[in-house]
Structures are given as C-alpha cells and as structure tokens.
Amino acid sequence: MKITDVKVWLVEGVKYNWTLLKIYTDEGYTGVGEATNWPGSPIIEGAARHVGERIIGLDPMKTDYIWTRLYRDLNWVGPYGASLCAISGIDMALLDLKAKVLGVPCYELLGGSFRNKILLYANYWFIKGGHNKEDYTRQAKEVVNNGFTGIKFDPFAHVDYSYGDDVDTNLSLTKEQQNHSFNISQAVRNEVGPDVDMMIETHAMLNMKTAITMAERLAELDITWYEEPMGPENPDMLKAFRDRMAPKVTLCVGERHYTRGGIRPLLEKGVCDIIMPDITRCGGPSEMKRMATMAETYNVLIAPHNPNGPLSTLASGHVCASLPNFFRLEFMYNDVPWRDEVIDHPLDIQDGYLVLSDRPGLGVDLIEEEMERHPGVREPRQGFYV
Predict the structure, then answer these.
(1) CB atoms < 10 A from the CB of 256, how many?
(2) Residues 281, 285, 288, 293, Cα dihedral to 10°
(3) In the prediction, which pLDDT does 383 show?
C-alpha cells in the first residue's frame, strides 16, 4: 500500500482555526488527522501541506518509521513549532488509517484500553458574559449542572494584552486587577462547591513576582492546579516556582513542551505533578503515548491540553484510554455549531465524559463539503489569549 495524496483544510473554530487533514492511499484506505495550533494557523496549514507532500509514495503502515524520518529531516528548521504540528497531524492520520486497515479502534494500537469513558474538564465555558462575578458564577453553575466535575479558567483575562501592552506592563497586575481576579475565582469556588476540580490558568502572562502573589492567594480556594505560571524556556525557574509554592499549589505545565526530549528536564527536576501535552503540537498520538510512559516512571499524571477541533478531542481520548496515569482531558464546552458537522459521527459527550466508540480508527471521517463551508479566518486575531 502507498500514500497517494494528502489534503489539508483550514476550518474556523470557536477559539482559533482548526488545521484538518486526510491521507489517501492506492488501496482506498484513508486516515484523518488534526494539526491545529495558533497564532499563525496559515503557517501550520502550509507546513501540513509540505509535510504531506514528503510522505507521498510511502507505506502508511510504517507509522514509527514515517514519524522518525520526518522528525529527523525537518529538525534542521527546528524540532518544534509548525513542522512538529504538521508531523502531529500526519501521525494522527496514519494511526487512524492503520487502525481502519486492521479493523480496530486506535486505542488498541496504543496498548489497549483501561477505560472507554474519558473524564473531561470544561474550558471556554465562560464566554457568554462579562468578566465579572455574576456572569462567571452563572455559567459555572450551568457547567456543573450539565455533569462536568472539573472546570478551568483564566481569571486574569480581563487584562487587555493587545499587542505591546503586556510588554509595557512587564506582565504585572495592579492591586485592583489582582483583587478582581481573586474575587472572581472565589465566587466560582463558592458557586460550584468543594467537590468540583477548579483549575487556574495563567497562560504564562504573569511575571514571577505576580505569579507567586496570585498563587499564594488562590491556594486558599483549594485549586486543583495552577497552570503554566511561566513559559517553557527555563525549567530551573519553573522548579524554583514549584519549590516556593509546594505543597500549597499543584503545578501543571506542558502545553508548550514538545516530544520526549522536551519534557525530560521537567520530569528529572520534579517540576510538576501533572503534565499536559497537546496532541496537535507535541508529535501526535504516538509521541504523546511515549511522553506519558516517561511521565509514569516519575509518578506524574497526564491531563492533555486540548482547546482544538473534534479530531484532536477524539485522538486525545484514544491515547487517554490507553494510559494508567491519566487524570483528565480538556474539553471546549462552548464551540462552533458545526463542530460535529465536519465529522460523520458526533462527539459522544455524556455527563462530563467523552465516550469512545469501538468503530475502527478514531471512529469518524471528515465531511469535506462541510469543512469548505467554514474556511478559516486569515486575518490575525488581536487580544488576550484565553
């Protein structure tokens, strides 16, 4: 069997564009994947098209060979970023294709399933109102009433970080902004009660002093984790933050740490309790599985980052099904109305769980006509990353 073509679509999502792709073969088998990342999604689209061209004529069943060949060839332009997003999408599509050839769900190729119901936590549930206590508590109550037992939000998102402003302020918050962020978080905790997991996101948009100040205040709310208090560039500073805050605050990082090599210093230094690789960035399902196995040797849990499209959710779910150290999977609570229309079977979300089917592969195919009805937004989107 040989790969004959790879098609790529940029589709508008609720948060940012999805980069979706499909691999075709000379025997009629196909596989679907997702390479979503932002900002600069047209760059990801271009990378996915180029990487797709590089695998024409190869045997799609040789998934690890193709991953390794692509990673080594493209390492000259950098091991991460757009090229690795493209590899991630290709790897996902190859796993889907191979599982469909063999007639099994993807999780069977990842070692079999520990579970077929994947515990979710809700993100992007807070977008139908203003950044105030009343709107946040109203929406948080709705999420919990719909069966979700975990929620995440960035209480600092009211800071207008349009281009340049975050540099001007040196990632600081005024006392008023600090109090406002804490008061919203406290109100949400009071509304959802003590049994709901509450994750606090920072998007690495606070300086060290401010990140520590807010972590110390938020610790009294029994938060499940404090996420990405600084960027991925310096694991020693992440370790310093953890040492300063442990055991009051659990640290979760990893959405911008890619591949086994990228998370190795985090694990060796004991930086985090929970790691959150993103399947469309970190190297795809094959690499996420390898990263999770590494994390297991350090007794670290996996909670994949997933503010992406439906294929990312499904592929992450299949990896999570195969992991003994799985914690929760991120889920976009509010999404575009065509999320389930670009795939031929809707996501099966029940009481805060993603329920996986036993259909071969990821269990879905892409609907090309529907994707083409919702082309991605080409203009840069301004404003704070939430």
Answers:
(1) 18
(2) -170
(3) 47
- pTM of the shown model: 0.95
> What's the alpha-carbon Rg for the chain, to the nearest Å?
20
Q: What's the CATH code, domain 3-103?
A: 3.30.390.10
H helix intervals, 195-246: 208-218, 235-245
Helix (H, G, I), strand (E, B) or coil at 344: coil
Distance separating alpha carbons of residues 382 and 192, to the nearest angstrom? 32
pLDDT at position 206 is: 93
Q: What is the pLDDT of residue 168?
A: 60
Strands (DSSP E) found in the chain: 3-11, 18-25, 30-34, 117-123, 150-153, 197-201, 225-227, 251-253, 274-275, 301-302, 329-332, 349-350, 353-355
Contact 284, 95 (CB under 8 A): yes
Buried b (16+ CB within 10 A) or exposed e, 305-343: bbbbbbbbbbbbbbbbbbbebbbbbbbbbebbebbbbbb
Q: What is the pLDDT of residue 162?
A: 40
- Number of other CB atoms surrounding residue 200 within 10 Å: 25
Token digits for 156?
């600092």
Nearest to 36 by CA among 74, 89, 87: 89
Q: How many residues does the chain have?
A: 386
Is the CB of residue 308 less than 8 Å from the CB of residue 278? yes
Report whether CATH 3.40.50.720 matches the domain 108-363. no
Q: What pLDDT sits at residue 100?
A: 98
- Bridge partner residues of 32 (DSSP): 22
Count of helix runs (H) and strand runs (E) in the chain = 13, 13
- In this structure, are residues 151 and 121 in contact, taking their beta carbons and an 8 Å threshold? yes
Q: How far is CA 200 from the centre of its chain?
A: 15
User: How far apart, in whole angstroms, are the C-alpha atoms of residue 15 and residue 7?
Assistant: 23
**Three-state secondary-structure class, residue 41:** helix
Q: Which residues contact 260 (CB under 8 A, 6 or more apart)?
A: 287, 290, 291, 294
Residues of the chain with pLDDT under 50: 161-164, 383-386
- Distance of alpha carbon 77 from its chain centroid, rounded? 23
Domain ranges across the chain:
3-103, 108-363
